[in-house]
Amino acid sequence: MSKTIQQLFDLHGKTALVTGGSRGLGLQMAHALGEAGARILLSSRKASDLEEAAAELKAAGIDAQWIAADCAKESEIQRLADETLQRLGQVDILVNNAGAAWGAPAEDHPIEAWDKVMNLNIRGYFLLSQAIAKKSMIPRKSGRILNVASIAGLGGNPSGMNTIAYNTSKGAVINFTRALAAEWGKYSINVNAICPGFFPSKMTAGTLEAMGVEKLKAHAPLLRLGDDEDLKGLCVLYASNAGKHITGQWMAVDGGVSCVSGG
User: Fold this and answer.
1) Fewer CB in a 10 Å sphere around the end CB: N or C, the chain?
2) What residues contact 46, with CB distance under 8 A and at least 6 apart?
3) Does the domain formed by 5-255 have CATH 3.30.870.10?
4) Every domain of the chain and the residues it spans
5) Backbone φ, ψ for residue 250 (5° rounding)
6) How far apart are CA 135 and CA 117, in angstroms?
7) 51 alpha-carbon distance from chain centroid
8) pTM of the full structure
9) Rounded to an integer, what distance in angstroms lies between the CA atom of residue 118 and that of residue 128?
């Protein structure tokens, strides 16, 4: 018999590792996966932020743990993968969300800043996906990988926004998602990307201030920014059996900005 819609979206018995999970979009997705029944392990660089985020999840009735790690460093990524598997036994869902941005005109962009953005935003995604897949997903021939890209990866920016390294890295995430999905489909590993638009967060605070919240809202057909619920549905779709025949895809969650800008 076919499953009901409730059964298809149910994540009870599943485990999820969410990087950049101590706040913002990562924490929102951790809530979504936990509310659907998954056990959660959060990671970011700062233990104090993770402790607070895990407490928030636990208060909502979600089984949550955390490990502090810097996903820009290969040794830290390998440690994160090993410790996560020791604690959870296996990883069913990997959410690659840890990220960094840097604002500077292309002609003056520091190479050190370029490398910092690339190391975290795309190299880190690859290394953690590789580690988790080799140790957990490929042997079991099962897994879901969600890569957080951005509508910034679909094209250029409005005048005044100088984030070429960030845009480049997020464009790379989209094609990394496609290439990995094509290669790992034989292992029944689904790989998909989410491309958020403007959501209020610590990372976007400077952009929101510089561009103006009302101006950014006006550029979206839905006339709004993203909120603390808007990634939940797509996240659980990608992570659950409801999305078992979806792989190598990206979807913008941006209030329609990308359909106007031609992304």
Assistant:
1) N
2) 22, 68
3) no
4) 5-255
5) -130, 150
6) 27
7) 20
8) 0.95
9) 14
